[in-house]
């Protein structure tokens, strides 16, 4: 070894590590760029035709008034938006959507959490228990809405007959409160299995040693859940809260259409259903496009605010 050469050359070691790291990255990359483009093209084509082009079309229609029969369009600027905010029916629909989304979100998380908590304490028939809970996810939303519409039908529905037998009034076709309860039950039942899957997986990730240590200290099952499991699965709950909000804003359309069709008297017309009614029933394409733009901005804004507000308060260490 030459005199004066250090036994440990940190610079040479660092360069060797960086070179091996870069070689690994190069091996992970595609040498043929056309192959990478070909693999990405199906997804990009789907996004182009089913997201970007419709989004651009909705944005362009939001600033014009379109004749649905003649195909002529007139640029009106922000008039579609100003008329929406001045419309009492639109404000009522927005207020209804807010409360409906919040209620179904909380109810879905609470019931899914209770069912996920009970999964750990079922010894016999656990597979059948999980299978039954996952069945609603395999049913189409329209079929789900039709099932609940039949069960609560005031004339032939078995559940409605039981409610009448107890001396309670029930008629979702005439009473707006009953219609709201019915679509909320239908929406929660359809989405509860989705939350259940994530919550069960999150609870399984909680270290068993922590729960065993709490049990040795004398903590009961509920106390172990609220003091150990619940804080550690907060990231999953936060994720499901956002997903449930998006579900309430967008994905409840087929359930509402199958159960109440927005009635009675528009009492179950949420924002997404109003987009359909104004655009495809009333043929007011400009107003419908403006509503869809507002709904998308609302969903994106809410998601960003939720992540920024809750990211610092969530414990992501399991």
TrEMBL record:
Part of the ABC transporter complex UgpBAEC involved in sn-glycerol-3-phosphate (G3P) import. Probably responsible for the translocation of the substrate across the membrane. The chain crosses the membrane at residues 34-53, 98-119, 131-151, 179-204, 225-250, 289-307. GO terms for cellular component: plasma membrane. Keywords: Cell inner membrane, Cell membrane, Membrane, Transmembrane, Transmembrane helix, Transport. It comes from Pelagibacterium halotolerans (strain DSM 22347 / JCM 15775 / CGMCC 1.7692 / B2). Residues 98-306 form the ABC transmembrane type-1 domain. This is sn-glycerol-3-phosphate transport system permease protein UgpA. It is found in: Cell inner membrane; Cell membrane.
């Amino acid at each position: 070894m030459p005199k004066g050469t250090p036994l440990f050359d940190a610079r040479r070691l660092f360069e060797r590590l960086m070179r091996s790291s870069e070689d690994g990255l190069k091996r992970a990359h595609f040498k043929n760029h056309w192959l990478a483009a070909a693999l990405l093209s199906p997804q990009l084509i789907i996004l182009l035709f089913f997201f970007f082009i419709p989004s651009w079309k909705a944005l362009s229609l939001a600033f014009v008034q379109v004749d649905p029969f003649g195909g002529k369009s007139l640029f009106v600027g922000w008039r579609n938006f100003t008329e929406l905010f001045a419309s009492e029916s639109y404000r009522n629909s927005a207020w209804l959507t807010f409360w409906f989304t919040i209620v179904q979100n909380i109810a879905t998380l609470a019931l899914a959490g209770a069912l996920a908590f009970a999964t750990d304490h079922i010894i016999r028939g656990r597979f059948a228990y999980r299978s039954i809970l996952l069945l609603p996810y395999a049913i189409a939303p329209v079929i789900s809405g039709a099932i609940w519409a039949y069960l609560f039908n005031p004339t032939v529905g078995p559940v409605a007959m039981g409610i009448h037998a107890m001396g309670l009034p029930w008629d979702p076709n005439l009473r707006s409160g009953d219609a709201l309860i019915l679509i909320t039950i239908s929406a929660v039942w359809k989405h509860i299995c989705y939350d259940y899957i994530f919550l069960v997986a999150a609870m399984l990730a909680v270290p068993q040693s922590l729960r065993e240590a709490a049990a040795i200290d004398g903590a009961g099952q509920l106390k172990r859940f609220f003091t150990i499991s619940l804080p550690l699965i907060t990231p999953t709950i936060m994720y499901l809260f956002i997903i449930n909000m998006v579900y309430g804003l967008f994905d409840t359309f087929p359930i509402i259409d199958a159960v109440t069709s927005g009635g009675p008297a528009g009492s179950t017309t949420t924002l997404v259903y109003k987009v359909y009614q104004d655009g495809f029933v009333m043929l007011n394409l400009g107003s419908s496009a403006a509503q869809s733009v507002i709904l998308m901005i609302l969903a994106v804004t809410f998601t960003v605010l939720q992540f920024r507000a809750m990211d610092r308060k969530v414990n992501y260490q399991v």
